[in-house]
Amino acid sequence: MLGGFNVGHETPKKLAYTKEHEWVNVEDGKARIGITDFAQDQLTDVVYVELPTEDETLSQGDAFAVLESVKSVSDVYAPVDGTVVQVNHELEDSPELINDDPYGDGWIVVLDMHDASQAEDLLDHEEYVDHTEA
Amino acid sequence: MAREGQPERARETTPLRHLHDDLGARFTPFAGYQMPLQFEGILTEHNAVRTHAGLFDVSHMSNLTLPPGDAEPLADAIGADATKLTPGDAKYTVALREDGTILDDLIVFRLPNRFHLIPNAGMNETIATHLTEHGCEVEDRTAGLCILALQGPQAPGLIEKVLNVEPPQRFTVDPLFDEAGFISGTGYTGEDGVEFVLPIEHAEETFQAFIEAGVTPCGLGARDTLRLEKGYCLAGNEFNPPVTPIEAKLTWTLDLDHDFTGRDEILTRREAGPQRVLTGIKLTDEGIPRREATVHHDDEPVGTVSSGTMSPTLETGIALAYVDPAIEEPGTRVTVDIRGSHRAGTITEVPFV
């Protein structure tokens, strides 16, 4: 990421995070994933997305989606192992949802987690804020 | 999420940085300068210039001046015949190396008391040396001057309203503020508009006056999408690696009936015909072509993208690319390799918009 501080960005306390600026909401063994407010702001206007397909199997660290702004291309990485069970196809026609509502309508996928214990290794709110301010 | 490419370090910034900070600009390193990438957002700024008016600080561009008596050595050094310029003229041209490739593109202004050249950002020393070698007496005024661009359909009216001066005609230049600076009918967006070259204090006042009049501040992000929709060359992209004006389709910027460095090579190469030419490509598939992507025709590689973006106006991927002249006919079907996936497009005459 280019420089910048996590000032004035929303970072909800109830979510888990990665150093690569994904957020993860784990419920009943399912992980809903998107990118953080900080990340969308750094990325600038998202104008094109490439999404995975349902049933795709991902390993932690796999690049599973591509977000393109006018100026740059960014990969989104799987924070945990899992099978893709839902894809936010709304983003194909409205990529700006990533910028406008990163924790809501701008979600990217839902994974059926293979190993629920992986969620414990993710960053919490405080660790993520520290990471973006480092 | 991770971004490709390494951030570069920048030594310099614009003298107007404090004004941009106040407006919430995000900065990006470009050619050794920290310059505003965007204020509110690239798409908003792009659309403001196409429909209303936008204001750019492009003070990273170079400023060189020459005495009016240097018309002949200047004409030897650049593609335009400087001896034919009369006070008030502005001309877009290129400076060539001995081998006929483009050293830089620039605008030369004939002011009442001097020639003024605006080469690209970071090119002041290179072009000053080139001119000095041709016998010109060059003053590098880059550090003491700012350049602003007011662009968009509302620009002419705003100039009359805010500055109480008549906007200059296209490719003409008028002194401004008792000859401390000047205003020219030039730009890089394809819209109506002007560029200002001003000492720092005048630039601060002028920038603020237009912002107060409601003009949208714009960064280099929108500047790039605006120029690409019009098919204008960006030196760091379209002239890198080196190309001739024949390949870049810029022979129209040369006065070939006067002698200048690189001219003989151009005449020889024009006779032989280019091996690659710059053309537009408009994608019909989804995706955004990026620099260095390979262009294919009938499954054979036929060229390379030099600049690409999502066109905010067309909402489709567009590119400038150097391709085999055999396939440059507008309408020819090609594909562009985007991360291993071949996306369909057509050769398209520029401007795209």
Topology summary:
The complex is a heterodimer of chains A (about 130) and B (about 350).
Chain A lengths: L15 E2 L4 E6 L2 E6 L1 H7 L2 E5 L6 E2 L4 E7 L3 E5 L4 E6 L2 H4 L3 H4 L8 E5 L11 H9 L1
Antiparallel strand pairs in A: 1-2, 2-3, 3-9, 4-6, 5-8, 6-7, 8-9
Chain B lengths: L1 E2 L8 E2 L3 H6 L3 E5 L2 E6 L3 H10 L2 E4 L6 E3 L4 H7 L12 E7 L5 E10 L2 E5 L5 H10 L5 E2 L4 E7 L3 H9 L9 E4 L4 E4 L8 E7 H13 L3 E3 L1 H10 L5 H4 L24 H10 L4 E7 L10 E4 L2 E12 L4 E8 L9 E6 L2 E8 L5
Parallel strand pairs in B: 2-4, 5-15
Antiparallel strand pairs in B: 3-4, 5-11, 6-9, 6-10, 7-8, 8-9, 11-14, 12-13, 13-14, 16-19, 16-21, 17-18, 17-20, 18-19, 20-21
Helix pairs in contact in B: 2-7
Concise account of the structure shown:
The complex is a heterodimer of chains A (134) and B (353). With 134 residues, chain A is an alpha+beta fold.
Task: Label the CATH architecture of chain A.
Answer: Beta Barrel
* Count of discrete domains of chain A: 1
Distance between the termini of chain A: 12 Å
Report the major sheet of chain A: 6 strands, antiparallel
Could you state the order of secondary-structure elements of chain A as H and E? EEEHEEEEEHHEH
Count of individual helical segments of chain A: 4
User: What is the helix/strand order of chain B?
Assistant: EEHEEHEEHEEEHEEHEEEHEHHHEEEEEE
Number of extended strands of chain B: 21
**Rounded average pLDDT of chain A:** 93
Question: CATH fold name of the largest domain in chain B, please?
Answer: Gyrase A, domain 2
Beta-strand share of residues of chain B: 25-35%
- The coarse overall form of chain A would be globular
Globular, elongated, flat, extended or rod-shaped: what is the shape of chain B? globular
Distance between the termini of chain B: 33 Å
Class from helix and strand fractions of chain B: alpha+beta
